[in-house]
Structure formats: C-alpha cells, structure tokens
Amino acid sequence: MLERLFRLQENQTTVRREMLGGLTTFITMAYIIVVNPQILSQTGMPPEGVVFATCLAAAVATLVMGLYANYPIALAPGMSLNAYFTYTVCIGMHVPWTTALGAVFFSGVLFVLLTVTRVREQIVNGIPLGLKHATAGGIGMFIAFVGLRSAKLVVANAATFVSLGNFADPSVQVASVGILLTLALMVRRVNGAILLGILGTALFGIFRGLAHLPEHWVALPHPSSTFLKMDLRGALHLGLVEIIFIFLFVDLFDNVGTMVGVCEQGGFVKDGKIPRVGRMLLADGIGTMFGAMTGTSTVTSYIESAAGVAAGARTGLSNVMVATLFLVAMLFSPVAAAIPAFATAPALVLVGALMTESIAQVEWKEFTEAFPAFVTLVATPLTFSIATGLSLGVITYTAAKLAAGKWREVSVLLWILTGLFVVRYAVLAAE
After folding, report:
1. pLDDT in tens, 229-284
2. What are the residue ranges spanned by the domains of the chain?
3. How far is CA 227 from the centre of its chain?
4. DSSP conformation class of 299
5. Helix axes 129-150 and 241-266, enclosed angle (nearest 10)
6. Contact, 314 vs 72, CB < 8 A?
7. Rg, Å, the chain Cα set
8. What pLDDT does residue 62 have?
9. Containing H/E element for 77?
10. Measured distance CA(141)–CA(83) in Å, rounded
11. What is the dihedral angle through the alpha carbons of 385, 36, 344, 356, rounded to the nearest 10 degrees?
C-alpha cells in the first residue's frame, strides 16, 4: 500500500528514511507550536485553543500535501502571517480576532479558486522579483523587531522613539542569553535549534525565578474556545478586502518560494518545472481554510522541510510522520502555554534574520528596482505594517519605472494594484 501511494522505489527511498526525514522536519519546525499561541494570544485569543488549532491545521495541511501531492513539504501557520494577523489587523486596525479569522478563511477560499483556475501562477509572474524579495526581507525585519520588543531589548523612548532596553532587567538578561544560545545552536547546525533555544531560554528563566513549570504537562485539547469562532459576515465588510489580499499575497510568494527551494534541493524539478505543482498549491489553501475554522492564522509551507529532505525524505510518507507528531503535540498545550514571551523572543529575532536572506537577490545597482525594494524593506518594520510596506513598494515601483521611461516593464496586474493603493491612501487622507 505504501509503495502504491508514495512510489518509494521510484523515488529511491525507504520507509526508514522517510520516517527519519519526517522526524527531522517536525523537530525543526515544532517551535511554531509555542510561538504561534504567544503571538496570536495578544489579540485576545485563548492560547490553549490556538495550540489546538495550530497542531490540527498543520496536521491536516501536511497530510494533504503528502497524500495528494506526494511531496515531503510540511505546512503550518506562517510566522510572517501570524504577525500581520496580530499586529497589523487586530491591534493596528482594531479588527476583532473573530473577524480576522473570517478574512483568513476567505483568503483560503481564494487560494483554492486561484489554484484551480491557474491564476496563482499568473499573479506570481506579475509581481517583480525585487518586490518579492524585499517583502520577505521586510517581514523578516518586522518579525525581528517584534522579538526585540518582546525581549525588552528595544523599548519606547520619548526623545528618540526607540532605544536600547535596560540590561539590569532580569528578563532582558535571560532573553539576551537565549538569543546567544539559539544562535550557537543554529550555527552548529543542530536539528531543532530554534525549539531547543526556546526551551533552554524558558528553563533559564525558571532558574532566575521569572517563570514557573506548568502545573500539568499533558491535557486534553481545548478546541471550543476558537473552533468555528470566525465571523464571516464581518469579514465581508468592504474595508477588509485589502486585508484578505495581503493574506493572499504574502502567503502566495512565501509558499511558492518555499516550494521551489525545497524542490530544488530534493531534485524534484524536472525540465525547469515542478510536477504536480497544482496539487501542492491546493494544500495551503485547504490548510488555511481549515486553520481559520479551528482558530489560527494563514497556513503555509515551511522552509524547515529542507532539513527533512537533507535527512533523506523524498515522498509524502515523511509528511504522514510530521502530521502524526503534530496531532500528538496537541496533548501538551499546558507546556506551550507556560512558556513566557521572553523565551520565544530569540526565535522571532533569528527567524527574522533568516528571512532577510532574500534581500541579496535584489538588483541594487538598478535604481528603479532598488528604491522600491528599499521602501518596502524599511517601511514594513518602521510603520509596523506589512500592508503599508507592500503598498508603498508597489506605488514607488510603478512611479520609478514610469519616470525612467520603462513603463512597459510594469505588468497589468501592477498597474491595477498601484491604482487601488493610491485610491486607498487618498481615502485615508480624506478621512
């Protein structure tokens, strides 16, 4: 049955290699079980419910990818998208988390529709590479800034807006040690470095008296607090159209970039194309819809899957292992809920650093490409909004190309987006 489902011999792999690859992938991405509830709980969402939603949505999406597309690429709620959900939509725009979940659900529906109609590939081709890379880098800086703020390493200052935190604060000391610990584990290429860094920082915090061990280590899942709490009617409000688009856009390029990277590493690319790519793209759409129903932000592919591929995973059988481990992890919600913010801060900082790698691929010597990328890169963390960074990048890209007489390089999609974003700022100015 396994041979028929996953074609193990054709892919030159074994059950043992697939299980080892799946375990490796899970260990490297398991930090999301802790970090996602930490971030989403700031919207008022119950952490126990978010743990349940995170694990179940990851398991379902990963299974779809494994069983339907037969690729060793695991999925879970995305780090950049949970930050956008929390800090931009819920906190920045004062949108209730139930309504934001409704927007996530509709974006998932759009993912599926756009995949079935093959529009997704056209959207990918319509956005300039420079803006794609700058968006990823800007999100990385945004996430790192959130981590530094959670660690109190960056604090508000009336004179300079922000300044360095007080190292006399024990939580700052613990978070700083956590960053150095996680950094050491990552540069030593230890599997599960981020998760081990979170646990090590939490244990150090307990030793310093800043945190306590959970009263219970195992508990039954608590789905009722977030399950089917999404407000679909509220999400249909005209003002949320842009939010739905951002969820769609960020996941679109994050997902495609991850898939291309992992498939290149695993040798899955044939004649410059990825076989069964439509099936792959359906997985995050279904996962996002299911995630919104259970109570979490957008689900996307994880670049940590590359660790599993390096360990030998070549088929969707490894995803079955990953999904099983996520389901088991649902029972340990008290552990995830007990980990304090200063313990997850190092993970945010270092994941943010990893995301800025894409900046190197921007054509910095071509100013019509460089300046829009710079605007996107800087505006995202400074305005505390991924949507603002992206929209300003699109507008300046079109303006730069138009001024340089290179208007033919601007796609029809980009002209439409530029017009929509200009109208958006004009409306905001009028208000």
Report:
1. 888 887 777 566 667 777 777 677 666 666 765 676 567 767 656 677 778 888 88
2. 2-358, 363-431
3. 21
4. E
5. 100
6. yes
7. 21
8. 94
9. strand 75-77
10. 12
11. -50
